[in-house]
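Hey L., structure's done. Input below.
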Amino acid sequence: MTVLYLASFIGGLLLAVRIMTHGVERAREDHPTGDRSFRLSTPVLVSFTMLFGSLGYVLSRRGVAQSVAAPTAALLGIAGSIVVARLVKRWWAVVPEHDVDDERYVLQGQLARVTKSIGPDVDGEVAFEFGGDHKRLRARGAIGGAIAADTDVVIERVEADVAYVEAWSDVEKRL
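Output:
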């Protein structure tokens, strides 16, 4: 039985290393984001195998009968796994405050086409597809120059519903 406990503990350690290298944030197709079940997830399996293996080994080395040690280790492993599942579910629901996207740069790099000419002191208009929707925004040149209608441009930022754009040909030269 000692071999089973050690194999369980070592298997749990190997799965823990896999979590550290690959992560656990893979969304499943059948669960919408935020409503994820962690009943049989890798973190829960790691917690069970490590708790079962370590507690079973300690109990068997202390002279506790196997008929008591194995069920005790299994029950404590299940209890620990339930705690881990709840902790991981809470962690999954946390929305980071420091990673909030700056609204000005959400469309940065978006390709668009000038529909009304942009002058040095005159706003024009650009049209583009974003998220399956056709959108139009007032536009100014990011560098301040004039851009003719039907020119492909790249959006640099959007401030107060005005897109600051640069001609794609200029951007392409830098690439």
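The two ends are 63 Å apart (CA to CA). The helical segments are 2-22, 42-61, 66-93, 168-174.

-- N.
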